[in-house]
Amino acid sequence: MAVADVPATGRPRRRFGRLLPNLVMIVAAVFFLFPLVAQARFAFQKVLVLQLGWSTLTKRWTLSPLTDAFDAEGFSTTLWLSLKLALATVLLTMILVLPTVLWVHLKVPQVRTLIEFLTVLPYVIPPIALVAGIRVVQPHARWFLNSDYSLVPFYAVLALPFTFRALDAGIRAVDVKTLVDASRSLGAGWGTTMFRALIPNLRTAIISSAFLTATVVLGEFTIASVLLKDTFPTFMATYYQSNGQGGMALAVVALLATTALLMILTFLTRRRGAAQVVAPF
C-alpha cells in the first residue's frame, strides 16, 4: 500500500510544479502580444481610433497603409542604406572583435574580466552622449562624418555588448587552445588555423553575433538622426509624422522582421548544436 500511494501523492505535486511556469508564460505572452495587437489594429484597420473595440475587431482590415509606405519617396533608398550599413558593421565587428576575443582567451585570459567590463560601457553611456562627443569633433572631421558610412564604427560600438558575449560564449564552449596547438603542430599558419580550424567550430557564435549586430543597426535612430543621416529608422520617424497609420505599419513590419531574424537564429543554432551531438555517432 505504501508503494502504491507514491504516484498518487507525487502526481499533484508535479502538476502544481508545472502550473506556475505555465502561468508565467501566459502572463508574459499577454504582456507582449496585447500591445502588438493594439499597434497592428491602429496600423491596418480603417476604423476611427475611438471605435477600436471588441465589436470592430474583425472589420475593415487593409494593407493599404503599408503599400502606401512602400511607395513613399525615400523608402527603398533608406532601407537599402540601412542594409548596407548592417553588412558593413557586421564585417567590421568580425574583423576587430573576433581576433581580439581569441587573443584574450589564448594569450591573456587574466584580462578577460576587464575586457568584458569595457564592452558593457555602451549600455552605461547613452547614445545621445556619444553623439554629443561626435558633434564636438565634427568640424575637424567633416571628411569622414559627411559620409553615410561614418555610422559604421559607431554602430559597431553600440553592438559591442552583444557581439562580445556571443563570441565569448562560443569560444568558451570550444577547446580553442587544443585546436590551435593541434593545427600549429601540423605546420599550419595562423591564417589556416583561423579559417580551417577555429571559424568552422565558431560558426554558431559568429551567426549569432552577426544577427544581433544587424538587429542593432536596423533599429538605431539617435545617432543617425543627430548626424542627419537618412537611414530606415529616421525615415520611419519622419514618415510617421505625416502618415501616422503608415508609419505604425512600418514599425509593425520592422518588429516582425526582427523577431523573424531571431527565430531563424534560434533555429540555426539549435540545428547546429544537434548536428554536433549526433555527428560522433
**Biggest β-sheet, characterized?**
none
Number of domains: 2
The proportion of residues in beta strands is under 5%
- CATH topology title of the largest domain: MetI-like fold
Q: Helical stretch count?
A: 14
Relevant terms:
281 residues, mainly alpha, MetI-like fold, 14 helices, globular, disordered C terminus
Folded structure, characterized:
The protein has helices spanning 5-44, 64-71, 75-106, 112-124, 127-137, 142-145, 151-158, 160-172, 176-185, 190-201, 203-219, 222-226, 232-242, 244-278. It is mainly α. The protein folds into 2 domains: 5-56; 64-278, MetI-like (MetI-like fold), CATH 1.10.3720. The radius of gyration is 25 Å and the shape is globular.
How would you summarize what this structure contains?
The chain has 281 residues and is an all-alpha fold. The chain is 78% helix and 0% strand.
Q: Which helices and strands occur, and which strands form pairs?
A:
Blueprint: H1 5-44, H2 64-71, H3 75-106, H4 112-124, H5 127-137, H6 142-145, H7 151-158, H8 160-172, H9 176-185, H10 190-201, H11 203-219, H12 222-226, H13 232-242, H14 244-278
Helix pairs in contact: 1-14, 2-14, 3-7, 3-8, 3-11, 3-13, 4-8, 8-11, 9-10, 11-14, 13-14
